[in-house]
Amino acid sequence: MRDPYDVLGVSKTADEAEIKRAYRKLAKKLHPDANASDPKAQDRFAELNTAHEILSDKEKRGQFDRGEIDAEGKPRAPEFTGFGGGGPRRGPGGFSGFDGDTIFESFSFGPEGARRTSRGGGGGFEDIGDIFGFGRQRRSAGGGFAPQPGADMEITLPVSFEEATQGASKRVGLPNGKQIDIKIAPGTREGHRMRLKGQGEPSPMGGPAGDAYVTISYASHPLFERDGDDLRQSLDVPLADAVLGAKVRVPTLTGAVELAIPAWTSGGRTFRLRGKGLPNATGGHGDLLARVNVVLPAEKSAELEELMRKLKGEAA
């Protein structure tokens, strides 16, 4: 992924206001609804959201500037040079790198449960209880001393409203250098917490590694404002359509829909699109509330001005 500053087109000295302006401008240009024929539109929009997520947060921006996290917001792994067979290799200055796909594992979460797939090495599905701590437990032989396990690690995983609603695959960097693909099930709510057993910090005493906990958070959105499980947005409606009535296209998390605007619709009127909001606790979705913003023609019209003078005079 590219440098967040390059993605937003701002300098490293840009303040919060500059970053916000750049994000809003690009979000309108790159939103998938505005680029329906471009197969890479969703990827570019996700890259923009990730860049904004890092640079709009003072702590994350500082971590990126100091080299503590990468352009995807993941902790930078220590460098390794691997030894054969897919494991880490010892290089001249220590360990750095892994061999190809052997560092990648995939986790999927959904109604069917959780599984892990390793690519390279032994491959295949492993026991779910061993990964997530549902089954097997580590015990010392004869009840003797057990080395202290490594520390647990908390990871916050930002997802867009669309990803939480429709499902997605997200890559997470772990402290041991692994990159793990986590599949987000459709309808995942903010605050959902996943346990990855043995994927935390290594033990300093040769014991088991700690666990990694991944918590889902919602990223900010350029079009929608969150209100609980509902979403709010401003809907620009031309003056003529507000007066005469028309059908307008309204962007939603699952694609644009048509909304019938009645004649003589005033600015500020709000329309409710049921089930077009965020996932809720009942397994359904909240609503989308579209507030009408009446806009004037882009170019001045002498006829319109004359009509307004006439109407103003009649009202007086």
Automatic annotation (TrEMBL):
Q: What is this protein called?
A: J domain-containing protein
Q: Which residues cross the membrane?
A: none
Q: Does the keyword Chaperone apply?
A: yes
**Domain J: where?**
3-68
Spans annotated as Disordered: 69-89
UniProt xrefs under SMART domains:
DnaJ
**Keyword 4Fe-4S, does the record have it?**
no
Kindly give the Pfam families that the UniProt entry links to this protein: DnaJ (PF00226), DnaJ_C (PF01556)
Per its UniProt record, what InterPro entries does this chain match? Answer: DnaJ_C, DnaJ_domain, DnaJ_domain_CS, HSP40/DnaJ_pept-bd, J_dom_sf
Q: Which PROSITE patterns match?
A: DNAJ_1 (PS00636), DNAJ_2 (PS50076)
Domain of life, source organism: Bacteria
Q: What is the lineage of its organism?
A: Bacteria, Pseudomonadati, Pseudomonadota, Alphaproteobacteria, Hyphomicrobiales
- SUPFAM superfamilies assigned to the protein according to its UniProt record, in alphabetical order: Chaperone J-domain, HSP40/DnaJ peptide-binding domain
- Mind listing the UniProt keywords for this protein, alphabetically? Chaperone
